[in-house]
Amino acid sequence: MTVLSPPPPAQAPPAPAPEPEPQPRAAAPRAERPGFAFAGVALCLLSALLLGFAANLTLVGHLQHSRDQQTAYDEFRRQLALGVAPVGQQTYDGKMLAPGAPVALLRIPALGIRQVVGEGTTSGVLMSGPGHRRDTPLPGQAGTSVIMGRQWGYGSPFNHLHELPVGSDIRVTTGQGTADYKVTGIRREGDPLPAVLTANQGRLTLITAEGGPYTPSGTLRVDAELTSPVQPAPPRPLGLGWISGSEQAMGSEGAAWLSVFLWSQALLLAALLTVAAYRVWGRWQTWIVSVPVLAALGLAVSGAATRLLPNLL
Length: 313
Description:
single chain; alpha+beta; Sortase, Chain: A
């Protein structure tokens, strides 16, 4: 009898192969947009210039004026102690005074003003404080001595000059001693001129701008007569009227265009590098490095451009 073997067990159907997990879609490469890069550069330039102008005409300008005044005061005291303070247009060894060299200490007690006066009246010189017009005698000498100062910017030393009462005292210390003046009047454009001086008389005229903040509409002059003895005046190589337009009241310093151009090129290069670094480093790394550089160059450009504005601003 034939024994039948049991049928082999049924094979289980093979398990289905696991489906592959979906792979994230690769990000499409970012298209380069030159317009965005140009806008980024323009935004960097505009921001740096606007912030630089605002800082130069306000906080940074006042700090610069305060620092320059302290430096000039220390130098003027040293010259007085050594007996080499200037008494004319030239130094004790016959050289013409450098622009901005300290020549006097101006004090107006009624307004609380104590300012070192530099030689020259260009916009750059008046950033450091009042300036003595080079073609006029120094205070204390015969003739009309002219000192100009800013109304609002860079320490605003002559901002309240229009409030000076007639009869107020003005004291000016030079290498020849202290000259005393008494205010005789305040003049605006179109007012009558003061009387002509005689040979042994002296006058001090202070000049600043008049008008709203940083929007001068004219000039204001304060006249004061010399009440102390007249000091001798050395020969003046630069005659009255022989100064450039940049040293006149409300004049601008055209020579500053070269500095503006050079600093602008540096600022443009820094802005281009900032945009390029943004694509390589990222946002925060780029701003941490570039903001101080852009701010410093913006201050430099705006500081040079400020010299193109009226010197009494």
